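F.,

This is the one I mentioned.
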């Protein structure tokens, strides 16, 4: 399942980044979003969501959220 389907406030572990776009993959990696890392959807906003990764909070759009597969 990807981040667009998880419940707000629950922590999940990133299983994989599913994209052929190397730039998107590098961007998510720079945020600390890669396999094995915990991620939490803090809040849903129009067109995306606010996520907590490591010690930061980031606003990502639905396109990025769909690429993040979680357990």
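My design for it:
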């Amino acid at each position: 399942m990807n981040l667009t389907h998880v419940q707000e406030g629950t922590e999940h572990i990133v299983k994989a980044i599913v994209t052929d776009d190397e730039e998107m993959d590098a961007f998510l990696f720079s945020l600390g979003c890669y396999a094995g890392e915990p991620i939490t959807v803090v809040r849903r906003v129009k067109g995306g969501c606010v996520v907590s990764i490591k010690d930061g909070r980031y606003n990502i759009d639905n396109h990025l959220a769909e690429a993040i597969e979680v357990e």
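Residues 18 and 67 are 5 Å apart (CA to CA).

Talk soon.
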